[in-house]
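Consortium newsletter contribution from the modelling node. Members have asked for a concrete example of what our holo predictions look like. Here is one, prepared for the uridine-diphosphate-N-acetylglucosamine complex that several groups have been discussing at recent meetings.
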Amino acid sequence: MKILNVVGARPNFMKIASLMKEYKHHSNIEPLLVHTGQHYDENMSKSFFDELGLPKPDINLEVGSASHAVQSARIMERFEPVVLYFKPDYVLVVGDVNSTISCGLVTVKLGMRLVHVEAGLRSFDRTMPEEINRVLTDSISDILFCTERSGVDNLTKEGIASEKICLVGNVMIDTLLSNLEKAKKSSIIIQLQKKGCVNGDDFALLTMHRPSNVDDAKTFSRILDALEVIQKDIPILFPIHPRTRRNLAELGLQTRMDSLRDIHLMDPLGYLDFLRLNSCAKIVLTDSGGIQEETTILKVPCITLRENTERPITAEIGSNQVVGTDPEKILTAYRNATSGKLKEPQVPPLWDGKAAKRIINILLKNCRNQ
Ligand code: UD1
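And here is the predicted structure:
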């Protein structure tokens, strides 16, 4: 069975890593890896390949950054000959980035079979580029693997046949669980202590890169209003996405950020350093999707700086409070989390480190039945 696996942007790498590891146990599977090059910086891409033990991609499409239309068009144009050359049994895409839908579309137009891992998640907010990517990818996929029950329910409501949908757990959590011990060896906290950024592991961790939060000066500064208060209580570590760093300068917010002495900006971190901070933080503030899931497993209180989540289980049984960008709401959530008022978070069903195994068993069975 030949499977062509696609990665493009940072959150894809940890999802594909558990599958690539699991394929090694199956001599009857030939896995190929295509990197679209949507993310390309050393610290947004290569460091993840090194730390996660991902093989060098068989092909790198090297599309780089551009508008959504140009980036998607470049991916499609360069991916088509790859699919035609390798003629895989399946093309497997993960998540919800531009690479996911662009490669998916090429695949089905060539009459090949498309597998979507992390299917069915819905924020019901069509202004998010990822939501469009999710809805479209799911509507053309042949096999849809879900991380949580809401995914199955959403796909069913959208009329996707039940035999195409499988609830298998979370491949990103497979990777987290298998790297926790390694992450404990990271020296990132010691380095930050030496620089005087933190004292022990008494710190908050912040990530922010959604266009809705960081492309708009008013929203960005409202979030800063809340962060200004929180950093007086606890130092905030902020590994900053290139989009966010650029926007701080372009939106005229750099001086204000510089004045907040206990928000410590740093370059994007590698997987293990980030996991170390994520697991030791007193609280995490984020607009990422994946981090809501990681904090749930790590049982670290998470405040999501978005009006909605496509991962509702993290708020229903996990440690996540979805509060949006109103400073008062962020501060109330902060006080709830730090006063220990929140209920003990639970681990979502099937987030047990075995999702990749389940996926591969289903694909093998499905391929035999073709
Ligand atoms: C993309 C995904 C988003 C995901 C995020 C994780 C889409 C629509 N969005 O958003 O779902 O949560 O990745 O990071 O696919 N840049 C660099 N170096 C890089 C990559 C990007 O400097 O290696 C800069 C460029 O200026 C680029 C900007 O970041 O224009 C945004 O990159 P892009 O891939 O377009 O979107 P993300 O915001 O990273």
